[in-house]
Q: What sequence folds into this?
């Protein structure tokens, strides 16, 4: 299933909605989108992944890339499907990002 | 040119012949059809949804390495031959290629302590092999004059045989 990518930046929050399958073929487009978003100084990067059905390690590398580019960035992973939660846990990402069922409220950026 | 001999390479020693073999170009565009092939055959073999996903992940990670490191970085081109089938009490996927040898055991994986590091201090490499190995019961590799073979083994539960 091709990957659908939608992004927006509002203030210091970047939102990236991913639907479909994120693999080595689709990852470069995601990374380009994240790079564009990070031309702004962001406090939060919110990954809306409810409709993301597959994520390879290429997706993890994009998260590392974003954190290395802007270490202050808080990364939220919203509504990941169970297999993606497992991937985040196995690789130690689960405790390094905010995994939650809804988008962060304004207070979360404080 | 190495990597252009197509699907005629012999199966590596001791590799059982599997069914339903297909040949795809060794490019990133083949990752999705490879996952589709794995998912379809694994589901038919009786693997549950979670095991199917994990097998797809393992095969995808290694296929990505074959394309990126075995073919593209080495300046080679060629195919990936994929086969699936039941062997004794296991379901297996075999990936064969003619690229530069890419032994998953020969590449450093993140240590447990690395996985606890803050993301900004993490190294990029090794996560794919970690996921591939962790997602199947066994991942075997052999390389020889006839090419490279990765074997993904998922042990079948009694009720899925």
A:
């Amino acid at each position: 299933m091709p990957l659908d990518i939608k992004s927006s930046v509002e203030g210091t929050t970047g939102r990236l909605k991913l639907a479909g399958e994120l693999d080595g073929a689709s990852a470069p487009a995601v990374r380009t989108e994240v790079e564009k978003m990070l031309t702004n100084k962001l406090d939060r990067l919110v990954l809306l992944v409810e409709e993301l059905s597959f994520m390879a390690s290429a997706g993890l590398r994009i998260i590392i890339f974003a954190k290395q580019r802007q270490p202050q960035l808080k990364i939220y992973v919203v509504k990941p499907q169970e297999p993606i939660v497992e991937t985040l846990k196995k690789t130690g990402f689960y405790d390094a990002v905010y995994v939650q069922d809804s988008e962060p409220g304004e207070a979360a950026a404080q | 040119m190495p990597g252009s001999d197509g699907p005629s390479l012999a199966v590596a020693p001791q590799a059982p012949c599997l069914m339903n073999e297909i040949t795809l170009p060794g490019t990133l565009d083949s990752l999705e059809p490879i996952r589709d092939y794995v998912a379809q055959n694994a589901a038919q073999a009786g693997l549950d949804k979670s095991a199917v996903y994990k097998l797809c992940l393992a095969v995808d990670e290694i296929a990505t390495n074959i394309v990126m490191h075995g073919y593209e970085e080495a300046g080679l081109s060629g195919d990936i031959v994929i086969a699936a089938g039941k062997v004794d009490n296991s379901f297996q996927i075999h990936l064969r290629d003619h690229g530069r040898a890419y032994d998953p055991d020969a590449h450093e994986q993140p240590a447990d302590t690395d996985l606890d590091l803050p993301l900004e201090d993490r190294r990029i490499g090794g996560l794919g092999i970690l996921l591939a190995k962790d997602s199947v019961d066994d991942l075997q590799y052999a390389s020889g004059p006839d090419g490279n073979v990765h074997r993904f083994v998922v042990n079948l539960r009694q009720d899925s045989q």
